[in-house]
């Protein structure tokens, strides 16, 4: 097969988490002077924690309020992830991971989320063993749309650009994938209305199997 490595984004691509992120941010934003809406959500999607912090701080003009706001969200979301019961895996994820494993293709997660959150969700959803390694947001100097996260992934896997495939859902992830010069597909997060067009799109993760088979 052509690919030796599949690079997975996490939020919105593998797991249905983005709607909860949006609703929780909207729940507390006004308390800290942050005028939050779907357009700002789309701008922030795919950014690292540091990138989101800078975005909010620039918007409200206060580092202190931004830190308080982000800590409030962190605590709220941690409780949610500990307590949810129904699986949040996206349609086709189990089948794709099984196909990759059976065909000896390596897989990694390249997510702007923290390593702690990525590891927790992979373990809770019982798919941790499918992934060879994780590249997380705190390891990055630059946030998506900078391609640093994807370049780090292929360097760690010791594969060439033409031997890897990126799977993403956000516009920032799309821009980062294009800038990296690595093959990619965008699988839009169906929890939201489509807010950008990509030149390489698939409907769901099932279709990835057909492409790489």
From TrEMBL:
In terms of SUPFAM superfamilies, this protein maps to: HAD-like
Q: Organism's domain of life?
A: Bacteria
UniProt-listed Pfam families: HAD_2
Q: What is this protein called?
A: HAD family phosphatase
> What is the species listed in this Swiss-Prot or TrEMBL entry?
Anaerococcus nagyae
């Amino acid at each position: 097969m052509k690919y030796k490595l599949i690079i997975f984004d996490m939020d919105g691509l593998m797991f249905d988490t983005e709607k909860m992120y949006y609703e929780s941010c909207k729940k507390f934003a006004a308390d800290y002077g942050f005028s939050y809406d779907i357009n700002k959500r789309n701008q922030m999607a795919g950014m690292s924690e540091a990138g989101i912090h800078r975005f909010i701080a620039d918007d409200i003009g206060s580092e202190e309020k931004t830190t308080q706001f982000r800590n409030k969200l962190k605590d709220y979301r941690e409780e949610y992830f500990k307590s949810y019961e129904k699986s949040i895996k996206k349609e086709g994820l189990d089948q794709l991971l099984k196909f990759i494993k059976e065909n000896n293709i390596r897989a990694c997660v390249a997510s702007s989320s923290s390593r702690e959150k990525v590891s927790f969700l992979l373990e809770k959803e019982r798919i941790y063993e499918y992934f060879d390694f994780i590249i997380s947001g705190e390891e990055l100097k630059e946030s998506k749309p900078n391609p640093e996260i994807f370049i780090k992934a292929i360097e760690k896997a010791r594969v060439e650009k033409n031997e890897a495939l990126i799977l993403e859902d956000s516009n920032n992830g799309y821009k980062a994938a294009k800038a990296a010069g690595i093959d990619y597909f965008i699988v839009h997060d169906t929890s939201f209305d489509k807010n950008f067009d990509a030149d390489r799109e698939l409907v769901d993760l099932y279709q990835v199997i057909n492409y790489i088979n």
